[in-house]
Amino acid sequence: MRSSKKRKLAGGRKLQTKGTVTDHYASFIKDTLAEMDTFPEMKGRDLIMDHAPIHTGKIIGKMIKECGYKCIYLPLYSPELNLIEQLWSVIKNASNQVAQSSFEGFARYSTRCFDGYLAGYPI
User: Start and end of every Tc1-like transposase DDE domain (predicted)?
Assistant: First the structure.
C-alpha cells in the first residue's frame, strides 16, 4: 500500500521509496482521530483534505468513516488558488524564522498567525 515516488538505487535494480507513504499517513490519521476523540466537541467533525495520493487511499477514507468522521476533499485545482495552502505557506515561513522549544510554543505562535490572518492581514 505504498503511495510514493520511487527511485533506483545506485548500482542496483532495487527501488527505494522516497517521500511519505500511505502507511505513514494512515498512522498519522489514526493518532489524530484518537486525539480528536478525547474532545467531545470534536466527535463527528469533518476532515478537509486535498487530493494528494496519500490522502485519497481507500484505507484512509475507510478509517476516517469507521471512527465516526467524514472526509471532505477540496476541489482539484492549483494550490495558488487554494486559500488554505496560501495560509499554510505564510505560517510555515513565519514559524521557520522563530525557534520553538515546545509544541505548546508552536501552537501559541500558530494561533497568533491565524488570528492575524482572520484580522485581515494580506497573504
Answer: 24-97
